[in-house]
Amino acid sequence: MDSMQRRGARLFRLSRSRSAAALVPALGLAGLALAAVAPTETIPIRGPAGNALEAPAENPQRPFPEKLSQTGLFLPGNTTTIAPGHLEYSPQYPLWSDGASKRRWIHLPEGQHIDGSDPDHFRFPPGTRFYKEFSFGARVETRLLEVSDSGVSYATYVWNPDGSDAILAPETGLRGIRTVDDGLRYDAPSQSDCGACHGGRGARAVLGFDALQLSSDRDPLAAHQESAPKGAVDLPELVRRDLIRNLPWQLIETPPALEADTALERAARGYMYGNCAHCHNGEGALAPLGLDLDAAVGIEARARQRSALIGAASRFVLPGMQHSLRVAPGAPRESVLAARMGSLSPVLRMPPLGTRRVDVDGLRLIEDWITEVAPSSSL
Amino acid sequence: MNQPRISLSTQISITAFTFGAALALSMQACSVSPEGTASAAQPLAPAAAPASPAAASPVARGEHLVLTSGCHDCHTPLKMGANGPEPDMTRMLSGHPDTMQLPPAPAATGPWIAAVVATNTAWAGPWGTSFTANLTPDPDTGLGRWTKETFIATIETGRHEGRGREILPPMPIPAYRHFTHDELEAIFSYLQTIPAVKNRVPTPLPPAG
User: Fold this and answer.
1) By the CB < 8 Å criterion, does A157 face chain B?
2) Is pLDDT larger for residue A174 or for residue A4?
3) Count of beta carbons in the 10 Å neighbourhood of residue A316
4) Are residues A117 and A221 in the same domain?
5) What is the DSSP string of B116-168?
6) A86 Cα to chain B: minimum distance (Å)
7) What pLDDT is recorded for position A270?
């Protein structure tokens, strides 16, 4: 450690006593130094009981096995062949993940089915698992979300460089586990990072698996669209296999698609649904922001999205401006939405976590859409 | 080790920072009534501690925690009084005054990486410039629309509202994330009882260049 880190570490240890509050201003700066250069596992974390733990202790109550090969995702004895009962799927509006190749699987408990009576909020039986694999050439990380009676739990597994297996990461996550793709430092998320996105919709913790995302009417302009993998399930296939029940029959007859006046608007709405609405919606903790970018097939959300964005004053004011609009019609450079998407500054960047690179294609889509948007008082 | 030569401007910065730290120490002894009208001419006697912390109401407990955790140091702006700098209790815990016009922060010099304004409410460093938040229950400019869950999530995760951008320095998140849920809840319930001050703290600034 260099001298600044040593000084930061000394000040940090002093912080354990509250009587050191007088050092608070200096501590904060040291905290930045520490956070910027030291891995997160040197900072004590909170355990599930709310007590501070010494990092990075394994929590013996965590239900997930130590190795990904022990989770049942693969056939026993290897980590290349996916075990039966794990259905691959591909959302039509994927999340930007710095350009990683991603594969996703759902595992339903034997003989059980999904309740699709609310097409925007499928109910999954306890024991349902979702796996999401991130690759840059080689596999880097596989995340796991398990549904239970009381909610969801998260785990993430970090792949060995030789691809033999993946090891459960600590609850604090791991920063800089690998450098991929021309110098990109890769992080495995902490439990609170998982909750930051997956907990942003109240009870709807599962993301990317709903009637719109699995519709067979896939948006041709969707950013980073993936062709559906061979053997993947979509909504009609789930219905055909009787793995989903109670879906409104209209959605079986007519595959859901977002309403829009133009193809660009459809793709932009879908992009924001897949990348923003898990935090920016009308039901989670950020609902008071009044920025509801959710897109639902059950309820008409287009007017709500537009009124939240077009010509709407932004609480976040861009540097150098007195006031800012979330979307300034025809003017992407003056729009907070595009400005923040295009920034990596910790102060400005949006999304605030989960990626290290600007989504250039997604940004271009949003900017093209903003350019197309005409100032209008009617929605 | 040879003493480095220090320029006048650096000496002023050292003095200001030391002064600020000394002031922070002296502020530990300040007693703050909920009305926020403490006589600020001299350090006040420490507030009488509750007979038993466990028996105190959450609001009283929260007030005690706020007084002892250094919140006022940065979130209540300093002003110049007859006997030197003192906390401006008319702006208690309302953060950086939105009426302040600030010139650009001085550039960093070697290891001297940060600068602070005289109110103790704006800090410039490698992260950009941060302004201390309005913790009063004003619904538009403060925490009036927050819930205790949002507050707890913010402190625990070090992210705005538990999921947004990281809280910037010098907010001592590494220390405060050791608070228990009960303590954070008490702090939040106390904060919701203090006078609401309409003060729209500026958006933080990214680093120059």
Assistant:
1) no
2) A174
3) 16
4) yes
5) E-TTS-EEEETTEEEE----S--TTTSSTT--HHHHHHHHHHSBGGGTSSBPP
6) 30
7) 96
A276 inside domain:
yes
What is the number of structural domains in chain A? 3
Ramachandran angles phi, psi of A321, nearest 5°: -110, 155
Amino acid code (one letter) for B117: V
Residuewise pLDDT in 10s, chain B (209 residues): 444 444 555 555 444 455 544 454 444 444 444 444 444 445 555 555 555 555 689 999 999 999 999 999 999 999 999 999 999 999 999 999 999 999 989 989 999 999 999 999 999 999 999 999 999 999 999 999 999 999 999 999 999 988 888 999 999 999 999 999 999 999 999 999 999 999 999 999 988 76
Specify whether A199 is located in the same domain as A334: no
CB contact under 8 A, A25 and B120: yes
Residue A341 forms contact with B (CB below 8 Å): no
Q: Which residue in A has a C-alpha nearest to residue B122's C-alpha?
A: A25
User: CA torsion, points A309, A310, A313, A319, in degrees to nearest 10?
Assistant: 90
* Residue A377 lies inside a defined structural domain of this protein: no
Task: Mark which of A220, A253, A286 sits at the end of a domain.
Answer: A253
Determine, for residues A195 and B120 on separate chains, whether the beta-carbon distance falls below 8 Å: no
The C-alpha atoms of residue A354 and residue A203 are separated, in whole angstroms, by 21
Which of B149, B175, B206 comes nearest A348 by C-beta? B206
Separation of alpha carbons A37 and A55, rounded Å:
17
Chain A: closest CA distance from residue B200 (Å): 10
Instruction: Say yes or no: A232 and A109 in one domain.
Output: yes
Each residue of A49-83: pLDDT tens digit? 333 333 333 344 567 999 999 999 999 989 999 99
Distances (CA, A) of A301 to A175, A203, A279, A313, B45: 37, 19, 16, 20, 58
Q: Chain A 165-224, CB below 8 Å of chain B: which residues? A: 192, 195-197, 199-200
Burial class (CB in 10 A: 0-12, 13-18, 19+), A10: exposed
Residue A125 tokens read as 């039986």
Minimal CA separation from B35 to chain A, in Å:
24
- Predicted ipTM? 0.71
- Residue A70 is which amino acid? Q
Average pLDDT score over residue span A6-13: 37
Of A15, A51, A348, the CB nearest to B174: A15
Do A97 and A208 sit in the same domain of this protein? yes
Q: Measured between beta carbons, which residues in chain A are less than 8 angstroms from residue B174?
A: 12, 15, 27, 31, 34-35, 43
In a domain, A379, yes or no: no
- Which structural domain range is residue A90 located in? 68-253
What pLDDT, on the 0 to 100 scale, is given for residue A37? 39
Cβ separation A346–B173 shorter than 8 A: no
